[in-house]
Structure to design on (343 residues):
């Protein structure tokens, strides 16, 4: 069968326009301040991010109806929640004008996703206003919704009100190791238990389309009780480029669900998760950013109880600008740990 040329109108890379930049500090290197795109780095010329070419590249089936496929499936053998949220935002963004940008989304996960079949995304054009546009998206498998998403888009407006929190002070990503590099270090330890080696090798085999550099690796891998807070640098693998902020917002939605709920377990090294799943997910976009460049992800859990936990996240540009915020509640059922973690 002959290969069919990709239709840019059906690809996430065809999305145009910027996320919210009004009323937020923007660095001189922000995409909106560039008169033309910077040259593509040599390392990236032949490495387009799989998040663009596959994960967030939806197939158009009909008006406001799309189909998404899967790239990476977690060990739980349920679909990754960030993938469903990111794809839902892609579908919603395709139905709004070029002068509207995503500023928030609110999602409920109502059923576990089946990795064996694609996901259909049905968009309802809830409201088209002069300043705000709202879209409702249902992610459907086997004839039933697995996610319900409300996404709101806003026309850029100037405002004298501008403030934000201060970015945490952490080492730059160049001074830290990736998760894969840390795993290789752990595997080189002669006293590492065999079951730990098997688990680490399984992690290495995962083709996760994002890179992570933990700020505090012992905390990241739960070697003792700590406060429910984690910090790590994160970026999409491969090259995405600047200027297309609708695309970067969709990638950020994908990234925002990664390792978020695990923050709830950090104060409890004597327990392991028996079952955990996201219940809902909300996100707000504040400023321009690039998800193929390092961003600091700050995750904090202010509360846990009743087999549920609440986690709040902030994505920071490395120049200190708050790019996006998110909040998630999930169910976390635990069991006693049989032995201390070897990681």
């Amino acid at each position: 069968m002959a290969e069919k040329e990709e239709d840019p109108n059906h690809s996430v890379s065809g999305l145009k326009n910027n996320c919210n930049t009004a009323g937020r500090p923007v660095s001189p290197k922000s995409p909106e301040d560039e008169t033309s795109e910077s040259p593509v780095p040599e390392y990236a010329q032949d490495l387009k991010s799989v998040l663009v070419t596959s994960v967030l590249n939806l197939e158009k089936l009909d008006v406001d109806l799309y189909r998404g496929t899967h790239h990476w499936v977690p060990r739980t053998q349920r679909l990754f929640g960030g993938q469903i949220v990111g794809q839902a935002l892609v579908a919603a963004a395709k139905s709004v004008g070029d002068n509207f940008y995503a500023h928030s989304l609110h999602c409920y996960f109502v059923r576990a996703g089946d990795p064996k079949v694609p996901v259909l995304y049905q968009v309802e054009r809830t409201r088209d206003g002069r300043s705000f546009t709202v879209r409702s998206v249902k992610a459907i498998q086997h004839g039933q919704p697995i996610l319900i998403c409300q996404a709101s888009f806003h026309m850029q407006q100037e405002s004298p009100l501008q403030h934000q929190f201060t970015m945490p002070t952490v080492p730059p990503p160049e001074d830290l190791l990736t998760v894969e590099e840390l795993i290789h270090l752990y595997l080189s330890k002669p006293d590492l238990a065999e079951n730990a080696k098997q688990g680490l090798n399984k992690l290495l085999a995962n083709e996760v389309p994002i890179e992570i550099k933990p700020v505090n690796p012992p905390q990241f891998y739960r070697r003792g009780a700590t406060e429910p807070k984690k910090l790590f640098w994160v970026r999409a693998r491969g090259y995405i480029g600047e200027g297309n902020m609708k695309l970067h917002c969709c990638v950020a939605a994908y990234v925002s669900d990664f390792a978020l709920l695990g923050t709830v377990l950090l104060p409890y090294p004597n327990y392991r998760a028996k079952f955990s799943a996201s219940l809902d997910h909300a996100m707000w976009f504040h400023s321009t950013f690039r998800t193929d460049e390092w961003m600091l992800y700050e995750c904090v859990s202010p509360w846990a109880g009743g087999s549920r936990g609440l986690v709040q996240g902030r994505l920071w540009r490395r120049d200190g600008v708050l790019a996006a915020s998110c909040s998630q509640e999930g169910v976390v059922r635990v069991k006693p740990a049989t032995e201390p973690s070897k990681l």
